[in-house]
Amino acid sequence: MSDTKIYLSEKEIPTHWYNIMADMPNLPKPPLNPQTRQPAGPPDLTPIFPMDLIMQEVSQDRWIEIPEEVRELYKIWRPSPLVRAHRLEKALGTPAKIFYKYEGASPAGSHKLNTALPQAYYNKKAGIKRLSTETGAGQWGSALSMACNFFGLECTVYMVKISYQQKPYRRSLMQIFGAEVIASPSDRTNAGRQFLAQDPNSPGSLGMAISEAVEDAVGRADTNYSLGSVLNHVMLHQTVIGLEAQAQMAKADAYPDIVIACCGGGSNFAGIGFPFVYDNLTKGTKVRLQAVEPEACPTLTRGTFAYDFGDVSGLTPLLSMYTLGKEFMPAGIHAGGLRYHGESPLVSQLYHDGLIEAKAVKQRSIFEAALIFARAEGIIPAPESSHAIRGAIDEALACKESGEAKTILFGLSGHGHFDMTAYDNYLSGQLQDYSLPQETLDKALKSLPKI
Amino acid sequence: MSDTKIYLSEKEIPTHWYNIMADMPNLPKPPLNPQTRQPAGPPDLTPIFPMDLIMQEVSQDRWIEIPEEVRELYKIWRPSPLVRAHRLEKALGTPAKIFYKYEGASPAGSHKLNTALPQAYYNKKAGIKRLSTETGAGQWGSALSMACNFFGLECTVYMVKISYQQKPYRRSLMQIFGAEVIASPSDRTNAGRQFLAQDPNSPGSLGMAISEAVEDAVGRADTNYSLGSVLNHVMLHQTVIGLEAQAQMAKADAYPDIVIACCGGGSNFAGIGFPFVYDNLTKGTKVRLQAVEPEACPTLTRGTFAYDFGDVSGLTPLLSMYTLGKEFMPAGIHAGGLRYHGESPLVSQLYHDGLIEAKAVKQRSIFEAALIFARAEGIIPAPESSHAIRGAIDEALACKESGEAKTILFGLSGHGHFDMTAYDNYLSGQLQDYSLPQETLDKALKSLPKI
């Protein structure tokens, strides 16, 4: 049997990130200043971001060098393994070849550390002492806490209250790395106090927590804000995943027919996918790229392509993206990282231009896929990542039907060690499917700003 | 800077386990039949173990071949990484070179899968349908559940009741892999019913759970018993750790002055240590080998070298080992995997013969070490593994004092993702040190059987 894991050496960690803005046929429309509704330039962003990241946000250079200090820390877990899923193939009885790129080998447990490290690095370099951010499921907060720890920055994490209560272990993990963790909405910010006035028992949402974290950063000169998804520079940093996967697929003498990843704000999908979009755009390949999202939060498949705010209070610049409306309140599904109303402008534009696909799946079907995967491959996947597994299993079963031996690559963005309550619910039969009612969506879309 | 991680290819997974019984100057005294008190031969063990494992238990062959089916499954995570702890060295300001062998990369989260897989394999080969076992902290139960899943065996785990209640996520993990998990003491066995009659609120202990699991296996022809530590064949299987570490150290052009591992029943210590004892015994090296145990359960440092039972009820053969007495009830420290009254006969004999060292450490000092390590290296270690970290940090600080640049290798046996409650307690200042009072020890030692 061929090797199960395909490793690269540390010398093969990419030296540059790939910037898709150099190659995409249509660039996203520019972000707008939330007050003036005019295109936002770098000066609009300096209150919360360091100049290096702002320049990455607008750069059209194809390759952007990864700082040596960041590459040195990437060595903690990178290059991450690419795994040939021999046992999963056998369990499914499929002629397809299935590979997965495993980002759960990161000490933070997910792909989020790929961007947390450079964000902390550039802020440190700019003289910033403290970062504020939000976290939903906890993956991003864990990663930024760890990155701040490595660069000697303070870190304050506004954690969506329902997660704060349901996931005490995630909170502990952040505290181990020295972060301050605050349940959001909180009384620490004007935004938080407003949300609490409207509903003292609010379970919180990512959009609310973003409002709080942004306000925190705007108010203090020593503090910047850090976002774990959506923005262009975040997509950029994540491309180490796909670049490594390409080198590993080449070592395995394989190339994917389809690349599948879960998609919330888009950073994991962009990370593994954009280098293959590059191949399609510049080398004539025809890789299918599939973003898988929850039916309960179907941003690409049922949202609208429009300008919207990134947060509930309307403090962030307006972004051109697929959105469910900033006031969309997602159901309490267990894939907390996929419960965001918006979508990366880059991913949105590619989807709008027909360069990538999307599909939405039900919650029970993703846990069914997670169990098939865990029992075959041994790894317990995060609920978010299990969306990609569902997509991959569906493709593999279609191959079984058609007899085609396609090569499937999917991104396994993280492990589920802090999501065992979700598995408990599934195993005990308590987990419910939830599809978004059209009237709820229509109502949320009314919160879209008029441009 | 030199590479952080030193990998081997899957082809470099050892083909044979190392059996220290071929080389140790004095073999342990033979196990005794619990009824007759006469040396127990293979026939005494056939009710609960398959013949292949029984033969490994008594073999004096130096190298025992690893079955191809087991090596194939080892590929899920083996060869495990050897890591040069550059950042930990820097944080300590030590001239020492620190390496650690990371077994938490296993999907079960610890080194336990190294022996769970061959045990499940040999039982399957012998026609057994079901395995029973016990688990304390949950590491062993997780590993055996996963191994049984891979080989299509049923698995019943008697989980120490206090762990069952405190660690629901460990239970979920076992259930994901299809195991039946029962809080021990339970009403499923005579032994369990007796313990409950004595104390309906008993928090359980490993010794009690072993009694239940052994009784379960003795009573059913389709069922064998499986033990995650102590026995010779378990030590044997774990030697893949040390054998890989030797190949990796050679790649890094290094050789350890001291090898450090935590030590409960002894399997992790034996795994990384025995191949270096082999070097000492046959190649003239002088590697120090240090077993680190909790002050609350100081089997080697304060126990007695004598024949004792492996379980509370006296169902198992009597083993020649360091023991605190089978009725020893350990304090509720968080290193659940190190709360066993006995010690591997092989490790015990080597310690008795002065071929290895041991030291005991306090609980708060191991969490202090764990935090230093996590913040430097990014990995949150299991409380058990943190005993080895404490040992390594102490050696590294001694080097700082003396100016010596020793090479330190320690075994990081597992991650702490399912032990966050312990970290919470430490961070909130609630964690207490506990040293075993002499009178408690004296009382427990009275339970030693008369031979």
Task: Describe the secondary structure blueprint for this structure.
Two copies of one chain form a homodimer.
Chain A: E1 5-6, E2 16-18, H1 42-45, H2 51-58, E3 63-65, H3 68-74, E4 82-84, H4 86-92, E5 97-102, H5 113-125, E6 130-135, H6 139-151, E7 154-160, H7 161-166, H8 168-176, E8 180-184, H9 190-198, H10 206-218, E9 223-225, H11 232-238, H12 240-251, E10 258-262, H13 267-283, E11 288-294, H14 299-302, E12 304-309, E13 318-323, H15 345-352, E14 357-361, H16 363-377, H17 383-402, E15 407-412, H18 420-427, H19 438-445
Parallel strand pairs in A: 5-15, 6-7, 6-9, 7-8, 10-11, 10-15, 11-14
Antiparallel strand pairs in A: 1-4, 2-3, 4-5, 12-13
CATH topology label of the largest domain in chain A: Rossmann fold
Please give the CATH architecture of the largest domain in chain A: 3-Layer(aba) Sandwich
Helix content estimate of chain A: 40-55%
Averaged pLDDT of chain A: 95
- Quaternary structure state of the chains depicted: homodimer
Which class best fits the helix and strand makeup of chain A? alpha/beta
Measured between the Cα atoms of the first and last residue of chain A, the distance is 58 Å
Could you describe the 3D structure shown?
Two copies of one chain form a homodimer. In chain A, a hairpin with an 8-residue loop joins strand 12 and strand 13 (318-323). Chain A has two domains: 4-10 and 67-109 and 233-445, Rossmann fold; 113-227, Rossmann fold (3-Layer(aba) Sandwich), CATH 3.40.50. In chain A, helix 2 packs across helix 11 (232-238) and helix 6 runs parallel beside helix 8 (168-176). The first copy, chain A, contains 19 helices and 15 strands. Helices cover 42% and strands 16% of the residues of chain A. In chain A, the strands form four sheets. Chain A has a seven-stranded mixed β-sheet, with helices on both faces. In chain A, strands 8-7-6-9 form a four-stranded parallel β-sheet, with helices on both faces. In chain A, strands 2-3 form a two-stranded antiparallel sheet. By secondary structure, the first copy, chain A, is of the alpha/beta class. The longest helix of chain A is centred in the last third of the chain and has 20 residues, at 383-402. Chain A starts with a strand and ends in a 6-residue tail after the last helix. The A-B interface holds A 1, 3-5, 7, 9-10, 72, 75-77, 105, 107-109, 146, 149-150, 168-169, 172-173, 175-178, 371, 374-375, 377-380, 417-418, 420-421, 423-424, 427 and B 1, 3-5, 7, 9-10, 72, 75-77, 105, 107-109, 146, 149-150, 168-169, 172-173, 175-178, 371, 374-375, 377-380, 417-418, 420-421, 423-424, 427.
